[in-house]
Amino acid sequence: MNNLLFSETQKFKQWWIWLILIGINGTILFGIIQQLFLGQQFGNQPMSDIGLIITGIFMLLLSLLFFLFRLETHIKNDGIYVRFFPLHKSFRFYSWDTISSFYVRQYSPISEYGGWGIRGFGKNRAFNVSGNKGLQIEFKNGKKLLIGTDNFEELKRTILKIQALKQIM
Description:
By secondary structure, this protein is of the alpha+beta class. It has 4 helices and 9 strands, in the order E-H-H-E-E-E-E-H-E-E-E-E-H.
């Protein structure tokens, strides 16, 4: 039996990321309209028409990628499943047998991990998309993984229940 104990899906929702992407896309779209359709150069040193179109396509694809990004976390009886879509096509599974400890905590995304996303190298990694609270996992092999959460209280209750059950077993 593999019951789902906790489930969460998060997306990038920092207003400043979307403001930057909308601003850049709007500026490039304005440039494309001005240069390609109105015949007026866009800027003092205008890009070629092809360069402007390629830049516009690149920025639209980058914006789409940010829109598609999502961090999915499932905690089940057999362990923790996490996926950072679309970079991870399938879930990464972490069995309870490989975990030495796990707890919820507050952290500093910028000073501890350098920001949001898939962060860190080697023994200390993080998957986060927003906020500053998460599930800290410490593995028996010495590695650590932090999984960000927006449902801190629900995750905390779930973890306390699992820890209580593990002590009984």
